[in-house]
Amino acid sequence: MSTQRIQHYPHYLDLYPVAQVRGTVRLPGSKSISNRTLLLAALANGTTQIHDLLVSDDTLVMLMALKQLGVVWNQQEASRTYVVQGSNGSFPVRRRDLFMGNAGTAIRPLAATLAAIGGDYKLHGVARMNGRPIGDLVDALNAVGIRIAYTGVAGYPPLHIQSGQLHAQRMQVRGNVSSQFLTALLMAAPLMAKHDALTIEVIGDLISKPYIEITLNLMCRFGVAVERDGWQSFTVAAGQRYQTPHNIYVEGDASSASYFLAAGAIAGGPLRVEGVGKESIQGDVRFVDALQQMGATITMGDNWIESSSNGVLKAIDADFNHIPDAAMTIAVVALYADGPSTLRNIASWRVKETDRLNAMATELRKLGAIIEEGSDYLRVTPPLQLLPATIITYDDHRMAMCFSLASLDGAARRGTTVRINDPKCVAKTFPDYFSVFTKITEQTLL
Q1: Cβ neighbours, 10 Å, residue 445
Q2: In a domain, 230, yes or no
Q3: What is the pLDDT of residue 446?
Q4: Is 325 noted as a catalytic residue in this protein?
Q5: CATH number, domain at 101?
Q6: Of 128, 197, 261, 273, whose CA is between 20 and 30 Å from 159?
Q7: Mean pLDDT across the stretch 155-168?
Q8: From the candidates 52, 136, 325, 409, which is the catalytic residue?
């Protein structure tokens, strides 16, 4: 894999108050699309060229795992194009211990895929990965004859997957913890539905529905159709196989777009992001709806979005279950609003790279905000003046990127000096984030 992501990161990074942002940002590829596409290409019949793949820690985890499983892939020199030789529904290597880092978009779909293929596999990751739940996925797979054992704490990685007597015609999975469990079963479904159709039923409410839309869209592009009954059941007909689309382009990451669009809404703009637009398959483009509710000016094209300030931002009270990652950005934008903002239905924050509800509450308080932290909501009352703060990032890329916005000068209040500890955590999805952020700012001390 390219070494372009490898760079020097200091132990901390100081960001000083910024008067205005403007310019154009070409986004890195979507993590959700990149890792799904890599796995589908590896399972397909034929060779797939993947263009604009995200180059980051999480995609490296998937690429290295696929290589260890015997999948042949190559990167075209000095580009973000990868050529993957599909394995036609199986993997050459049937016994392997795989390191999955802290990549939820890698371990969950891969666990289901390996369980469906059969073999003897162990999956483990960093300490935080071993605290991220996977029990609902394991329960669903074990219920149809797979043998998956926990080698640490029950309900969490590490996992030991062994071949069982698969009898999958109907599966059930809870939908209220992580949509990645359903994504994992959907992607593995054609491998389990060789002779009989497979129906996957969702128990309870399904969170983060736009991420399931991404999964279904990509499966269709690789030749597999899924029949659905709303959000409650999904059926894959027997005998379908993944077929290469030959060429596929990865959209720019809509979650990463949120930081720059928020910057334009806070600090003047206009700020344009390229690589994602109104034709996007990513639900996180709906982040702009929240910015518009707060008073920002938004314009969109097929492959770009632009934001700019329209005066003091308005407080917001909204349900963010559909865009949990991008909602973190709104929590910091709320510092610039004209009153208290409430972000609701975000319990999934607690089982991400860190307990994001508690982490956001803790770090926002350092900036002077009054915070009410509930089990599934966050209420942010902005201070009269932002306070200088040292932000702990909890080895969470989104914490680092979100809090960079507190250095911006908004119409309601001025930005402050922010020290970001451990800025290298952005390598998970956006290795050069801070370089790009600096280019759109006028580093003028206020």
Answers
A1: 8
A2: yes
A3: 41
A4: yes
A5: 3.65.10.10
A6: 197
A7: 93
A8: 325
